[in-house]
Every structure is written in C-alpha cells, then in structure tokens.
Amino acid sequence: MQFSVIIPAKNEKANLAKNLPQLDPVRTHFTLEVIVADGASTDGSIELAREKADRVEVKTKQERETIAEGRNRGARVATGDILVSMDAGVIVDNPIRFFEV
Fold this sequence. Notes:
The protein is of the alpha/beta class. It is 31% helix and 24% strand. The chain has helices spanning 13-19, 45-52, 67-77, 95-99; strands at residues 2-9, 31-38, 55-58, 82-85.
C-alpha cells in the first residue's frame, strides 16, 4: 500500500521547511510519495520542494488557483493507493502513527 501526500502551497517556504522533513521518518515504515502542488510561488518554495518532495507540480494557468484546485492537481498525478491532503503549515505530533491504518 502506498500513500500519496499532497501538499498545496503558494509562498509557503517557511512552512514547507518544517513540514516536509517530518515525513522523512515515515518512509522507513510506509511507502510514501510526497507531491507539492505549488501555485506559482515566488519565495523559494518551488526550489525547496524540489529538494525535499518526490514531485512538484507548478501551476501554469494564469488565473488564480484555489487550494482545492491545487489539491486536485496534485491528486491527478498521484500514484498512491491512499491520498492524504495536508496543508503546508501542518505539523503532526507523531507522523508514523498518523499514517497507521
């Protein structure tokens, strides 16, 4: 079973710097892919996400994108059996327990 964690973000570099590393220990217990659906950030979020996430989907349309649209964009490319949507500012007390089914 594989989890796809989808994180919509726009100019969330500070939050992503805390959020993404918390998922590293989860990889020793579960199969996990991390997808950041970026809304065309200008603060370095894209570069950070490319270092830490498995996949970064950057918005290309000119119109404003809602968080839901970003989540859906990430879900379209996800390959996991279970999709988990997580905002960039979410810090989980016990990430391994969070993913236990």
